[in-house]
Write a structure and sequence with these properties.
Layout: E1 7-13, E2 20-28, E3 34-35, E4 39-42, E5 48-54, E6 65-74, E7 80-88
Antiparallel strand pairs: 1-5, 2-4, 2-6, 3-5, 6-7
Organism: Liparis tanakae
InterPro entries: Ig_VWA7
Protein name: VWA7 Ig-like domain-containing protein
Amino acid sequence: MEPGAAFQLPFSVLTEGSGGKYTISARNDKNFPSTYPLSLTLTSGEYTNSSLTITPPAGTPSGADVTLTLEAKSASGLDSNYVVLRISVVTKVTRRPLGSRRWNR
């Protein structure tokens, strides 16, 4: 993920329970701005796909990392799961194509 650029993280949620409305929550240890659906409607035995977008501020140093926790919880609270991810912030490196150097003789 690059400083100052929105990074889209796709995710899927599956329940073997009765399905229904699940609350989605996300948090990260750097308080980087993020957007994601607040809820998803799940059907038992079927994956529901969505995504979270997180944007590290432009001044975030390359090499920094963020710990992101994403959770899905049923309305009853009896069915829930979460994932914890560590994502690195890396400044984009651009290289000249081979043969683009000029040599002075």
